[in-house]
Amino acid sequence: MQSGCRGGQYHPLSDHALQDIHEGGLRLLEEVGIEVNNERARAAFARAGARVEGATRVVRIPRRMVEEAIRSAPKSVTLYGRDGRDDRYHLILEENRVYLGTGGTAVNVLDLEGVRRPSTLEDVCRLGRLVDAMPNVHFYMLPVYPHDLPPEDVDVNRFYAGLSSTPKHVTGGVYTVEGVRQTIRMAEIIAGGAGELRRKPIISFVILAISPLKIDDLYGEMLLEIASAGVPVIVPTEPQCGSTAPVTLAGNLALFCAETLAQLTLVQLVNPGSPVICGYVGTVTDPRTMGYSAGAVEMGLLNAAAAQLAQYWRIPFYGTAGMTDAKVPDAQCGYESALTTLLVAMAGANYIHDTAGLLDFALTMSYEKVIIDNEINGMVLRALRGITVNPEHLALDVIREMGPGGEFLAQVHTVRHLRQELHLPRLSDRQPYDDWVRAGARDTRRRANETARSILDAPPGRVISEEVERELKRNLPNLRAGH
Amino acid sequence: MLELMRKLSQAVISGDLEGAAGLAEQLLGDGAAPQDIIDNGLMPGMEYVGAQFRKGEMFIPEVLLSARAMQKAMDVVKPHLVSGNLPSQGTVVIGTVQGDLHDIGKNLVRMMLEAAGFTVVDLGIDVPADRFLEAVKIHRPQVLGLSALLTTTMRNMAAVIDTLREAGIRQAVKIMVGGAPVTSDFARTIGADGYAPNAVAAVDLARSLATS
Questions:
Q1: B108: nearest CA in chain A?
Q2: What is the pTM of this model?
């Protein structure tokens, strides 16, 4: 698996700008405060010495409390694959290491028949199998909402569908406190015990703050539940330029600092040292419709800058890239996805979600786009790897040996390096025109469709053993069958 | 001996030039028949390489290096063959037509043809029509391959065919053409027998032309 490539080649913020935004975020928390709608969370802040205003539920967090939380949070968080011993799936979130995965949570799928319809639990499984087959998609964030389940059964079943369709790390958003409890219980059984899950977390959760400057009651409760359990939690924030945030990018980033750090502080107050990952889904509002834009180039700039801020704090960072506002896998879909993924990866964001499959403002998950984005991700990862220059790669000896008019086709040097040096596309077409016509003149979307079909036509492999599955069903009666 | 044969196949697959030659020598020393070495050591390796190539799992430089490894082993085995000669798939004369100095594509075709067992006479680049004519008379190839990269030199392919026709030996040889701007329509227009869009297709085409 290509993983753990180093980003950090791109820095949209100067050192000075970085400082100003960081300071701005801390001042917002200290002076304006954040509205905390969960009582236990407010109590936790109050106990630690934050100023809590009962009537407005606004908590003003002193900078030393935030700074202390940044210090106590782990600088590196490792997320594990389904089998904690299989290190091909480990993701070490730290510094400027980059991993790319899917995102959530869309309510529709664009299926292989070209039909846009409400998503189901079966889609979570089938998309998981696609992700499993994609070498440049490193983790599986549960991408769609299963409309065929009652809300109270969604969390545990969605995570189970993910874990039983790919051995890659599974991340997801959650909907009920009881669902979070069940999901953790399930993951403990699969991991081989509560201690084992803490040592090698095979799942992680995402809890979003509300912009500007609010923590929701239910989401606050779920955050506390996860923090107490010591399971990795991602705490993103989603300010939108011109609606829930100032229209300026710097103002949006100041809100990111305040909101993500408020959540990080809460986690550290409840369970010091518990793994927490800062996150950002910031973007712009389209001034013509006031709608959310998922494919804006500013989203790339913002997330790259946010990655820089997280590196400054030395906290692992969950970034956003690879989405599009296009409704089908067309040219817009390709260029928007490629551009933001490249910018954010080059900034060194650690855990970049939404980089496979999402289109239509993240409302729809496309089977075909998973395949297309795997190709984009491969090119991005190749760009991150950069240009190796050493005597072997400079190849002066080989050039000398071949001389003017020579060729490098059947040389040992060529064969020794070509697989590492070149990104070898699986989906892109590089055939001569006549061959392409003879092969059916298929465009990218059609080739992606056929690739997806061939993956899903193969019988699914078993990721979770029958024995563990039986044990899970004994403990969690609302768990649907995996196989 | 079976184990050595398997290793020889593996050396061909991995493009291990010295390894392939060394193993061939070792097999001869152990008393293996030269034809056996070819049939059970070298050919299975190349067949595997071909299959992997068609699946897109191996790439052209890798295939060519495998072919070179096979050639190295052949150089060892050949003198021990009873006739001293391998049956050839046929002879192909190839060259880049006049006015064109590009040869990477033509060289690729040459190497692929050689790897496939053809005897290839490569006339090089910037070859005038007369030299093609001369080569056809001397070598009596089954196939003549013409290459051009520039749209401006494509027309010189037609000149070669006309020259052969005027000399009365057009029917003695099959002519295939290739190069980035060349199309199957163009090939038909100038009266060539076939067009191949890439080196792999060129080998298939040469095979079918040589036996037709």
A1: A409
A2: 0.89
